[in-house]
Amino acid sequence: MKVNKILVSQPKPASDKSPYFEIAQKYGVEIVFRPFIKVEGLSAKEFRAQKVNIAEFTAVIFTAKTAVDNFFRLCEEMRITIPVTMKYFCTSETVANYLQKYIVYRKRKIFASKTGKLADLVPSMVKHKTEKFLFAVSDVNNGADSTLLAENKLNCTPAVMYRTVSNDFTPEESFDYDMLIFFSPQGIDSLLKNFPNLEQGNLQIAAFGAATAKSVKDAGLRLDLEAPSPEAPSMTAALDLYLSRHNGEAAANA
Fold this sequence. Notes:
Elements: E1 5-8, H1 19-27, E2 30-33, E3 37-41, H2 44-48, E4 59-62, H3 65-77, E5 87-90, H4 93-98, E6 109-112, H5 122-126, E7 133-138, H6 144-151, E8 156-166, E9 179-182, H7 185-194, E10 204-208, H8 210-218, E11 225-227, H9 235-246, H10 250-253
Parallel strand pairs: 1-2, 1-9, 4-5, 4-7, 5-6, 7-8, 9-10, 10-11
Antiparallel strand pairs: 3-8
Helix pairs in contact: 1-9, 7-8
């Protein structure tokens, strides 16, 4: 079945140069960006219930911009002054650079992984193993990262600072898509919450990552496209190949 309208369960890209826009033009399809999930920060009261005192830590670990935002928001709400000696360990240079929104970057000790993986940040942390690390995480973290840090004998405390919740559809929103693209198991959970009686029929579903793909199948849904793969390392590359086989390039050549 030809795909005409696609829902990408992510926020709309900030740049007009996103591959999604190129794909939409190439195949003459409509792409709508509409997250199935959204992030909510914990209140100061909820955070305090974890009995974690931010002032006791000498280093913070960040894996996402969302973690950065909620860490500094909570510090402000709880009137915690962050010392200039605080060290920041980030899983990517993008997250590290994002710290400039809150601190004077050049005056702080900031470390970043070049691969986006926590495992590749560990060597830098081990060099500073005397630090007391605070790990800013979400409510859906699986604990594997904390296990990795514990195995390297790092004094680290995970603290939930934000949660992932369903971004519910309103009665006014149309749901006339030919394909849905998901990037997390939580997105699948939200789909089922919003449409408990969903009959897939010709609706095509794409998933990025093994965990997301498994959630699709566990939900009893048909998985039509999975990424990454050797031939398509990104979802946009996978979508491009998929549409070339199902839609052809007639619209682009017309």
